[in-house]
Amino acid sequence: MKRILSLLLILIFLPLLASCDKEEIKDIEVVEVNTMLAEAKTNTVENSVEVISFEASFDVKFDQKVTSAEKNTEVKYTFKGKVNAVLDYENFEAHLGMKFDYTIQMVELGLTTTGNVELNGYVDDTYVYLDVNISASGSKTTLQNKFKHGIPVDQFKEQVLLSLTQMDSSQALQPGDDFKMYKVGNKFEFVQEVDLAKQNSTNQGVPLPDAVGMGLPLDGYTIDEGSMVKLSVLFGEVFEAFDFEFKVKGSSEQKYFEG
Questions:
Q1: Residues linked to residue 228 through DSSP beta bridges, in sequence order
Q2: For labeling, which of 25, 71, 98, 253 is most exposed (least CB within 10 Å)?
Q3: pLDDT (tens digit, 9 = 90+) per residue, 78-101?
């Protein structure tokens, strides 16, 4: 089943973006893009969307300091890794992957714990299959499991479709927004990317591209250069594939005072 899903991604999504003639459309107006996206949204029905994919990479640090009358403590956390997911929407098959390294340092005690977690998962319309490997301070644990997820597939699809149809694609872009539009064979690819470090410089949080219709609060964190979120939409008469990419590198210092 994992092989089927991998082939699905290769056969449906990537060739359309890579092997076909892909040409950037220059001088296209915001109003025209909004109109094209709105028409595709209107025509989109259940099972029109074939692939939804997501990839997130992160390199983040947290420094937690607690001050009290009795003692001060400080714990430092570092997490670095990647998460990805690919959903065959029509057949309700999904592949999930996660891999990250972590370090936990208890400063006063002089203790440092390091480890990593790797997860591979597959979901069909009935079961979840998990393969998890955990390493911590030299010890290793492997977990393999299969269980029924109980997700109402039809209801899930309806919710995804509802989210798409409620998305105001006619206002996806505002004048001055950065975006790119490509002609891919007889289809189009819309791409919008947001620089998270630039957006977060005002400390007001970071919005995902308006076309997603979601918000991503990152208040209180220092976001480093190179952090970004990108949305790619492949469409013709209907929405066919969505790809979300998220990269974040940053740090946060949290201070607490106890009486």
A1: 195, 247
A2: 71
A3: 999 999 998 888 788 899 999 999
